[in-house]
């Protein structure tokens, strides 16, 4: 049962007796550390490959540093009480991603991806800054619930009109840039789910009919949300982007559970998930193949067709061992197609080893934890659900793709947040971090009003 | 709501734990199995990432490495590939390695733990040492002389230094260029298919991997056994042997290619290569003593390595007397590699002692520091030193006034023995011509070289003389080359 009531949030704030620590200095120190680590990685790649520090090291460091500093100043100015961790984590992961992409560029000098990725990162940080500066209070977003859902559905539908790329219709190409609109839809759907569930929690929890031991909400309340979910998942199945449908589904179930507190939803969710998985696995040869590959990653070797991508990815991780081969010294490029995007983690695993991979996982874990902490600290249900939703997006996305490339679950194409090549993904993740920063700032302001946490 | 947020957080934590545990499974627990998977090319990539160490002949490398700039970066090159192919073998990115390239692979590729500056250093730093070099015992002049001599024929030459067992020449013709197989492209695959389909089997190392019936050259072993056993008292005593000789227990009559074998002395019988005399001597000596002598020369030894494996030469020990008679003149189931017959000649030249042949003088690091040297090899006594002296006399006689005159070198002491081995169904095949010999320079204290030459397609003349006619000049060229250097 919910402890925070249904009405709240603007409880009369008594004047704070103690001035809250702002911890912006901690954030700045961590950002400097993150930038230095990234520059170090960049230099390590150059030293390992050519024996010299790459010529662009200073420029690269300065670029990343300026971006991080701009973001930091925005936070300092407009969200002074924000959690000091999300921004440095974002900078570090983004910087590491650039290092890995630069490193893979060296294998095939024909088409460098790192400069483009740097431009997208700059765009992402710009969006971060804009969100922190413009969005003074997250509750404003509640006003745009239905705008969000309409835009999200449009974004999801648009790529159907564009030609398929590598078997998936999730890209649109505009002026030489390929954009994955589904990425942006994630944030918008999270806002919609959070706002809608926050507004209809009571109705969802208590109203409606009771069937056996399950309290069903009224169709009027549940209808729109199920419809939106069905449409989004359906669209994604049409586009063959199963990773994202899995992500939406997980997000939907988590938020529904947090909002209503009904375990039944989890049961229903799992039931629907299994039904969906079985149906899709049967009907889609593409998916069926993925499951077969997951169960028998080396079947193609035994059949004499050479190792498939998953086998190559596993080889890369195995080569890394505990400490890794060192940046620039691995052979993850053997994975071939998508080595810079879906399989970027294999490069990290091979060259940084289990130690580096665990560190990356823990960074994501920390980012998610900070999101949940903001969610716990907030008083308004919308803010809480939004924080939980955004953090869960990161968690689920990391799990789906990292589990996929390490053979834990069937592989579904998806971008590793911040690390993977892909502009839309980077921009989206910077938006998520911006919202988490804003939410954590609100949480501490609200908390300062009552019992400071 | 707080409680449910915590539950959801717990769920996320579980996902994180699952990822970490699974990463440990892939990267640590199963790492060895994944790394060993034949489809994992990392091992090959790191192996070909650096130039391979070289094989040296006469102080000069006969191998090299070429930077292709491809994924498997360095490819093997060979100087005088066909000449040294029976020594080096090939090192192919597609088909693996053979001969020295195979037995010394760890050193050449830099993977050998001996090369590491500290124990476990390479495992820790994930580095690979530069490939070391292999210095062979081959004498380039002798090798070339043998190769030129055999040119356009089919056959093999093995030469060793009697006092040490160093292999001085190892030639097999027809040969092939191992460089053709170095890469992994279409040319390498075509060359592989072509070489394997060739009826002349150019990739077969005839000097060590193929056994031939040794024919009359085996009479050296029989004579040594008979002298050691006291079956004949002196070189110039009559041997009481009939001509033709009826194989014991049969009605088969054994004849000779030359006249004057009836009741010949051992010296005469050896010089004129009388089958009847040696068949009878073998039977008189008995299977046990024949076996003991043959095995002390190296026959029936399945573990000879120089360092690559040498096909075992055989002397059948479960024979009746008729078969023993035939075995004693190098027929029936007696078979020998050219290297084995060079060891027979070397034993006579070396005072009755047999030294295990070896091909690698020493191995060095890339920088030149010695990793290992050949060291002293075990010595076996094949015959009494006095017997060896008599055998030297007999073999000199063959060169001075017998079937091996073409092997004579002015100013040097040369001993030899010819042989013609019939083979094939009903002896229909072109006979193999053999010549084994040793040579001692005029000023040398002991014999410098022992050679065995086999020519597979000597002129279709079934007479004993072909060993002396075809093979002896090749042996002489090899011996001259060694004595000159």
Which radius of gyration of chain B do the C-alpha atoms yield? 28 Å
Question: How does CATH name the architecture of the domain at 209-484 in chain B?
Answer: 3-Layer(aba) Sandwich
Going by helix content, strand content and strand pairing, the class of chain B is alpha+beta
Please state roughly what percent of the residues of chain A sit in beta strands, choosing from under 5%, 5-15%, 15-25%, 25-35%, 35-45% or over 45%.
under 5%
Report the helical percentage of chain B. 25-40%
Q: State the total count of DSSP E strands of chain B.
A: 18
Topology (SSEs and partners):
The complex is a heterodimer of chains A (453) and B (485).
Chain A: H1 24-50, H2 57-78, H3 86-105, H4 114-134, H5 145-157, E1 172-174, E2 177-179, H6 181-206, E3 210-211, E4 214-215, H7 219-239, H8 242-260, H9 263-283, H10 285-295, H11 299-302, H12 309-320, H13 344-377, H14 381-405, H15 423-449
Antiparallel strand pairs in A: 1-2, 3-4
Helix pairs in contact in A: 1-2, 1-3, 2-3, 2-4, 3-4, 3-13, 3-15, 4-15, 5-6, 5-7, 6-8, 6-14, 6-15, 7-8, 8-9, 8-14, 9-10, 12-13, 13-14, 13-15, 14-15
Chain B: H1 2-29, H2 31-36, H3 42-47, E1 55-57, E2 60-61, E3 63-67, E4 74-78, H4 81-88, E5 91-92, E6 96-97, H5 99-103, H6 105-109, H7 121-125, E7 133-136, H8 140-150, E8 155-160, E9 167-173, H9 186-197, H10 206-209, H11 219-229, E10 245-246, E11 253-254, H12 266-271, H13 275-285, H14 287-297, H15 321-328, H16 338-349, E12 353-355, E13 360-364, E14 370-373, E15 379-381, H17 385-401, E16 412-421, E17 432-441, E18 449-455, H18 465-484
Parallel strand pairs in B: 1-7
Antiparallel strand pairs in B: 1-2, 3-4, 5-6, 7-13, 8-9, 8-18, 10-11, 12-15, 13-14, 16-17, 17-18
Helix pairs in contact in B: 8-18, 11-13, 11-14, 11-17, 13-15
């Amino acid at each position: 049962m919910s402890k925070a009531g249904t009405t709240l949030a603007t409880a009369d704030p008594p004047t704070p007796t103690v001035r809250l620590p702002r911890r912006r200095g901690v954030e700045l120190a961590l950002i400097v550390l993150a930038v230095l680590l990234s520059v170090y990685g960049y230099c390590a790649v150059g030293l390992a490959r050519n024996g010299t520090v790459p010529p662009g090291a200073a420029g690269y460091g300065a670029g990343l540093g300026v971006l991080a500093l701009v973001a930091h100043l925005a936070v300092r100015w407009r969200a002074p009480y924000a959690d000091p961790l999300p921004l440095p984590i974002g900078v570090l992961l983004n910087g590491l991603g650039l290092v890995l992409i630069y490193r893979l560029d060296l294998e095939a000098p024909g088409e460098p991806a790192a400069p483009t990725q740097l431009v997208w990162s700059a765009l992402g940080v710009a969006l971060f800054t804009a969100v922190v500066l413009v969005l003074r209070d997250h509750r404003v977003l509640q006003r745009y619930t239905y705008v969000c859902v309409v835009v999200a559905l449009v974004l999801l539908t648009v790529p159907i009109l564009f030609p398929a790329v590598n078997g998936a219709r999730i890209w649109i190409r505009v002026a030489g840039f390929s954009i994955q609109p589904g990425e942006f839809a994630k944030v918008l759907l999270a806002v919609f789910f959070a706002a809608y569930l926050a507004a209809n929690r009571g109705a969802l929890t208590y109203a409606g009919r009771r069937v056996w031991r399950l309290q069903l909400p009224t169709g009027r309340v549940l209808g729109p949300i199920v419809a939106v979910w069905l449409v989004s998942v359906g669209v994604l199945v049409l586009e063959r982007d199963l990773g994202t449908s899995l992500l939406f589904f997980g997000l939907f179930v988590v938020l529904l559970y947090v909002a209503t507190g009904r375990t039944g939803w989890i049961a229903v969710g799992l039931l629907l998930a299994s039904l969906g998985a079985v149906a899709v696995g049967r009907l889609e040869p593409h998916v069926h193949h993925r499951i077969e590959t997951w169960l028998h990653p080396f079947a193609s070797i035994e059949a004499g067709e050479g190792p498939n991508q998953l086998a190559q990815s596993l080889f890369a991780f195995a080569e890394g061992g505990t400490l890794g081969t060192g940046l620039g010294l691995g052979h993850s490029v053997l994975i071939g197609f998508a080595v810079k995007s879906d399989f970027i983690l294999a490069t990290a695993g091979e060259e940084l080893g289990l130690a580096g991979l665990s560190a990356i996982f823990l960074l994501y874990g920390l980012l998610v934890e900070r999101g949940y902490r903001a969610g716990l600290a907030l008083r308004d249900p919308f803010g809480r659900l939004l924080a939980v939703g955004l953090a869960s997006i990161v968690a689920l996305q990391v799990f789906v793709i990292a589990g996929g490339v390490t053979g834990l679950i069937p592989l579904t194409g998806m971008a590793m947040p911040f690390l993977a090549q892909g502009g839309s993904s980077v921009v989206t993740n910077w938006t998520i971090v911006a919202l988490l920063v804003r939410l954590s700032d609100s949480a501490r302001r609200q908390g300062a009003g009552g019992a400071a946490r | 709501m707080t409680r449910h947020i915590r539950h959801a957080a717990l769920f996320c934590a579980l996902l994180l734990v699952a990822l970490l545990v699974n990463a440990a499974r892939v990267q640590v627990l199963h790492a060895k199995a994944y790394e060993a998977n034949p489809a994992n090319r990392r091992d090959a990539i790191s192996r070909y990432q650096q130039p391979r160490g070289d094989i040296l002949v006469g102080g000069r490398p006969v191998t090299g490495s070429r930077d292709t700039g491809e994924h498997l970066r360095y490819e093997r090159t060979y100087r005088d590939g066909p000449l040294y192919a029976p020594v080096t073998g090939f090192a192919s990115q597609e088909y693996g390695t053979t001969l020295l390239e195979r037995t010394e692979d760890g050193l050449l590729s830099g993977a050998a733990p001996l090369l590491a500056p500290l124990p476990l250093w390479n495992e820790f730093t994930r580095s690979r040492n530069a490939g070391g070099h292999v210095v062979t015992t081959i004498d380039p002049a002798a090798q070339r002389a043998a190769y030129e001599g055999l040119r356009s024929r089919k056959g093999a030459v093995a030469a060793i230094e009697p006092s040490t067992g160093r292999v001085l020449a190892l030639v097999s013709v027809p040969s092939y260029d191992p460089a053709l197989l170095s890469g992994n492209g279409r040319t390498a695959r075509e060359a592989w298919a072509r070489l394997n389909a060739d009826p002349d089997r150019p990739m077969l190392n005839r000097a060590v991997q193929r056994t031939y019936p040794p024919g009359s050259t085996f009479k050296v072993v029989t004579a040594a056994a008979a002298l050691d056993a006291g079956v004949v008292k002196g070189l110039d005593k009559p041997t009481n042997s009939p001509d033709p000789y009826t194989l014991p227990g049969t009605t088969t009559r054994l004849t000779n290619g030359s006249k004057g074998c009836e009741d010949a002395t051992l010296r005469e019988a050896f010089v004129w290569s009388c089958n009847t005399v040696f068949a009878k001597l073998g039977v008189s000596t008995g299977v046990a003593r024949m076996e003991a002598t043959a095995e002390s020369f190296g026959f029936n030894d399945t573990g000879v390595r120089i360092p690559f494996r040498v096909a075992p030469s055989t002397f059948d020990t479960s024979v009746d007397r008729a078969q023993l008679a035939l075995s004693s003149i190098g027929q029936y189931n007696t078979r020998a590699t050219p290297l084995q017959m060079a060891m027979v000649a070397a034993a006579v030249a070396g005072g009755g002692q047999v030294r295990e042949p070896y091909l690698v003088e020493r191995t060095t690091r890339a920088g030149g520091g010695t990793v290992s040297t050949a060291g002293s090899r075990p010595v076996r006594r094949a015959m009494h030193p006095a017997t060896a002296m008599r055998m030297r006399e007999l073999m000199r006689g063959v060169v001075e006034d017998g079937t091996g005159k073409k092997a004579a070198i002015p100013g040097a002491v040369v001993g030899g023995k010819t042989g013609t081995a019939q083979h094939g169904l009903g002896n229909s095949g072109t006979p193999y011509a053999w010549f084994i010999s040793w040579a001692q320079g005029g000023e040398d204290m002991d014999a410098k070289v022992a050679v065995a030459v086999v020519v597979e397609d000597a002129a279709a003349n079934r007479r004993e003389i072909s060993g002396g006619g075809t093979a002896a000049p090749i042996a002489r060229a090899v011996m001259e080359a060694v004595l000159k250097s």
